[in-house]
From TrEMBL:
Name of a matching Pfam family: C2
Gene field: MCTP1
Organism in which the protein naturally occurs: Physeter macrocephalus (Sperm whale)
Family annotation (Gene3D superfamilies): C2 domain
Family: Belongs to the MCTP family.
TM spans (from-to): 538-571, 645-673
Coiled coil: none
Record's protein name: Multiple C2 and transmembrane domain-containing protein 1
Top-rank taxon: Eukaryota
GO molecular function: calcium ion binding
Source species taxonomy: Eukaryota, Metazoa, Chordata, Craniata, Vertebrata
InterPro entries: C2_dom, C2_domain_sf, MCTP_C
């Protein structure tokens, strides 16, 4: 028998009950709502149908929350890449009265913690019959867009009255819902925390493709490969016009499960201006691979043609960790001594990838932005180091939260940047951004509690609030120096490039400034030839004769070495020639204003979406301008001692090159270089080509990054000594 029942909701969301015939059972309408008895609500979450797509691939990773009285009482598992998920999960809830409806919310899980809202509905418990199993079909709606079709959720529910001994249990449950916000948030934190503690690393080297399917009219393809392990995603570079691409790229995944997992691999053909063509797919079952061993795999592409050649290595690793402030690794003398010994200069060649140890104490925040209509926020904090991402518990209804958590990370690159972001947990939508700081590891002063002014999303200006952190970094300088000469670790969560008028203009101005340096140098040299200033031209002529007559190849690194030394003495003497780049800062602020405007007028972007091909070209030009400008700025910042560690490393390298070029004839150096290049493929067939100089420069920040990493001065009222009393709301 099928009948409809009114669903208690502001949006009048429909719910359909498919009741099984049952002669025993009384309607709950006969039971007064003020009845002191308690109820047990048994729910089986069956499945979802035609749910909303929230990911770029046209799918979602849905999970379901149940709430009663504003408190979360159940959270389902996540079903990956499925719009028709099957859960078959059971929940037993104890309810002290039936006035509060069951609030059902569906989200799309994103590893970056910004879960997307997929719809919600209310289930009126007063309309359920007692002791009778009922099949319920819930239609999901978005209160902001009531006309959108977001799919349905299928449930089975049984409502049973509980008396006597069950009353005590129910009272305990009710009390647990009314605990302090700190206790509640700790429970929620446990749910979030588990998938963020990784137990090993899966290193994949994408070698080549063989006999791939031709997708273009010229009989070729522009192939690239996508990898996915859970919520970790990588994308290879595009190899134009070939069916046998040679990639030689490496990607590192974090392994969160002891038993391994499945890596999904798809090959695509890049098409500018339209949807990319699918070439084929394959999978790697990590549970079938042995650890601490490199496996060469030749995988046949399904639903397509050709093979992919990969190297896969599973290695165990020390896990990142979260603990309370009272449990502090560095305050334990034995543990501290063990860590210092682990990264001592004597252990240079022991595990070259393990560069150092980072401990971050997230103590508290003050004066945060109010994100809720009540004038409060529900803040939690996310700590990121490259692809390692951990979070604190949520402190509810508080603008001055205290977390008192300690995070530890293994450092793989000392030039990494620690990012600490504060969010507001939103019950109905994705988390709201409250503020962020980015701290280069090399700028950290160990053991010092500091108040960091929170910045906006672009890290260009302050936002409301400060966060108190205490950070310690221990690393091996030799390992860190060697790590500088190999490619940087890619982040598997990257913001998608978008077309921005301000960003395009900013990159053009940056590149123009780099080019103008060369143009001005050419004008200066030409003026010497024209004898505009006789004294200057005479000095230049004498210098030219002296240099050319006495020139040796070793003088090139020697001149660069002298330039670095000259700038160093200018800095220590107080005559710093480094100038604050106000132009870049102004451009970044303009970009932030444009972003805010774009967020408000997101529905007015139809014109750019209609000319997708032109947008692709503009984005490519925008990125090329950024790369060229960043290259010039990084060279300048190396000589300007922006990052002293890197400048000292450059001095060591230039000294070595000067000595080598002075004592060893050039033909021997070229001979060694050529032998190395010709035999590299024979000695290591699957080695990834890299350029040590470019890898070094990639660690030097551009002018934009210098502004983003710049620490803002805190308000004098915010100091560790003047601690404000928490607003408990």
């Amino acid at each position: 028998m099928l009948y409809s029942c009114k669903l208690k909701s502001v949006c009048n969301l429909p719910v359909t009950y498919n009741k099984k015939i049952n002669t025993a059972g009384t309607s709950n309408a006969d039971v007064p709502l003020a009845d002191p008895g308690m109820y047990q609500l048994d729910i089986t979450l069956r499945r979802g149908q035609s749910l909303a797509a929230r990911d770029r691939g046209g799918t979602s990773d849905p999970y379901v929350k149940f709430k009663i009285g504003g408190k979360e009482v159940f959270r389902s598992k996540i079903i990956h890449k499925n719009l028709n998920p099957v859960w078959e999960e059971k929940a037993c809830l104890l309810v002290d009265h039936l006035k509060e409806p069951l609030y059902i919310k569906v989200f799309d899980y994103d590893f970056g913690l910004q879960d997307d809202f997929m719809g919600s509905a209310f289930l009126d418990l007063t309309q359920l019959e007692l002791n009778r199993p009922t099949d319920v079909t819930v239609t999901l709606k978005d209160p902001h867009y009531p006309d959108h079709d977001l799919g349905i959720i299928l449930l089975s529910v049984v409502l049973t009255p509980k008396e006597g001994e069950h009353r005590e249990v129910t009272m305990l449950m009710r009390k647990s819902w009314k605990r302090s916000s700190k206790t509640q948030s700790l429970c929620l934190s446990d749910v979030h925390r588990k998938p963020h503690l990784w137990r090993g690393i899966v290193s994949i080297t994408l070698i080549e493709g063989r006999d791939l399917k031709a997708m273009d009219s010229n009989g070729l393809s522009d192939p690239y490969v996508k990898f996915r392990l859970g919520h970790q995603k990588y994308k290879s570079k595009i190899m134009p016009k070939t069916l046998n691409p040679q990639w030689r790229e490496q990607f590192d995944f974090h392994l969160y499960e002891e038993r391994g997992g499945i890596i999904d691999i798809t090959a695509w053909d890049r098409d500018a201006g339209k949807r990319d063509d699918f070439i084929g797919r394959c999978q790697i079952d990590l549970s079938a691979l042995s650890r601490e061993q490199t496996h060469k795999l030749e995988l046949q592409l399904e639903e397509g043609e050709g093979h992919l050649v990969l190297l896969v290595t599973l290695t165990a690793s020390a896990t990142v960790s979260i603990s309370d402030l009272s449990i502090n690794s560095l305050e334990d003398p034995k543990e501290r001594e063990e860590i210092l010994k682990r990264y001592s200069p004597l252990r240079i060649f022991h595990n070259l990838k393990d560069v150092g140890f980072l401990q971050v104490k997230v103590i508290r925040a003050e004066g945060l932005m109010a994100a809720d209509v009540t004038g409060k926020s529900d803040p939690f904090c996310v700590v990121e180091l490259n692809n390692d991402r951990l979070l604190t518990h949520t402190v509810y209804k508080n603008l001055n939260p205290e977390w008192n958590k300690v995070f530890t990370f293994n450092i793989k690159d000392i030039h990494s940047v620690l990012e600490v972001t504060v969010y507001d947990e939103d019950r109905d939508r994705s988390a709201d951004f409250l503020g962020k700081v980015a701290i280069p590891l090399l700028s950290i002063q160990n053991g010092e509690q500091k108040a960091y002014v929170l910045k906006n999303k672009q890290l260009t200006g302050p936002t409301k609030g400060v966060i108190y952190l205490e950070i310690d970094v221990i690393f091996n300088a030799v390992k860190a120096s060697l790590r500088t000469l190999i490619p940087k670790e890619q982040k598997y969560i990257e913001e998608e490039n978008r077309l921005s008028k301000q960003l395009l203009l900013r990159n053009f101005i940056r590149m123009k400034r780099c080019v103008m340096v060369l143009v001005n140098a050419a004008y200066y040299i030409n003026s010497c030839f024209d004898w505009d200033s006789p004294a200057r031209s005479l000095a230049a002529f004498v210098l030219f004769l002296f240099v050319v007559w006495n020139f040796e190849l070793y003088m090139i690194p020697l001149v660069l070495l002298l330039l670095l030394t000259w700038n160093y003495f200018l800095i220590i003497s107080g005559k710093d020639n480094r100038q604050r780049d106000t132009v870049v800062e102004d451009m970044l602020e303009d970009e932030e204003e444009e972003d805010d405007k774009d967020d408000k007028d997101s529905e007015k972007k139809g014109f750019i979406n209609k000319i997708y091909a032109i947008q692709e070209v503009c984005i490519s030009v925008q990125n090329i301008l950024d790369e060229v400008a960043s290259f010039g700025e990084r060279i300048k910042n190396t000589f300007n001692w922006t990052i002293p560690f890197l400048s000292w490393l450059a001095i060591v390298a230039l000294c070595a090159f000067t000595v080598i070029l002075y004592f060893i004839p050039l033909r021997y150096i070229v001979l060694v270089w050529g032998i190395n290049k010709f035999t590299k493929k024979l000695r290591s067939p699957y080695a990834i080509d890299n350029n040590e100089l470019l890898d070094f420069l990639s660690r030097v920040p551009s002018d934009v990054q210098v502004v983003q990493y710049q620490e803002l001065k805190p308000d004098p009222s915010h100091s560790p000594c003047k601690r404000k009393k928490n607003n408990l709301g």
